[in-house]
Amino acid sequence: MTDERERYFRRLRRLRRSARRWSVTAGGLGGTAAVLIPYAGVGLPDAAWAGAAGTAVAMAVWRWIDLRALAAQPAPAPVDPAEAAARSRARLVAAVERLPAGAGVLAEVRRVRSRVALRGTSVAPLWARLDQAALALGGMSGRLTGLAAPVLGQAAEADRSLRELAGRVVSVERALRLAPAEPRSPLADAHRELVEQLTSGVTAYEQLVVAAAGYLAEDSRPTGTEHVAASRLTEATDLLHGVSSALAELRATGPARLRTPTT
């Protein structure tokens, strides 16, 4: 989204340049018509000169009127630099997301940034495990259909909940480092309980991913000992062998038939 203040001044400069240009054009055409008409009389070329001069004068007047009307309006308030940076960043993210692999690149950048922010905390290993499990489940999401389709929504909700819990754990852990000795023990107990909740939640999420992989393995397993694609390839191979054998027999018996005398 373009800055309204910048758009206002850009339009003002454009109108000023246009008004000056049409004023110069009107002066040139008017002067030319004023010089040529008295000497050559009024003819068709002179009418063209006069019409062009009149049109230029009218355009110059309209441009100056538009310029004065726009200049009379108050300029929009300047945009906060932080807000402008946020808008610029949002436009850049939207442009990258429109690329074929943009969404995946942005997701990877966000994961790396989150890992860097959590480096040195007790949450970092659990966060890495959660990222790996989420990536594995994302790779299977396109094939989890039918009865397994509701699992994706539950997994997404669990992922958001676990990441919010991880943020709370990090906040408590950082506060724990600054806490004095007296209130440190209750805060440490609360931190330990939160870490245990996060650990159990990440473990449950990993078990869900393993169960989803097992579902896909059983759903795609063929009923016989041979996959359908392999059996079709075998049939096609046998067919080609049969056709090649038949062609070889025809090639071998063709000359013999030609040499056989007719009765």
UniProtKB/TrEMBL annotation:
Domain of life: Bacteria
Residue spans crossing the bilayer: 21-41, 47-65
InterPro entries: Rv2743c-like
Entry keywords, A to Z: Membrane, Transmembrane, Transmembrane helix
Pfam families named in the record: Rv2743c (PF25587)
NCBIfam families cross-referenced by the UniProt entry: PspM_Rv2743c
Record's protein name: Uncharacterized protein
Upper classification of the organism: Bacteria, Bacillati, Actinomycetota, Actinomycetes, Micromonosporales
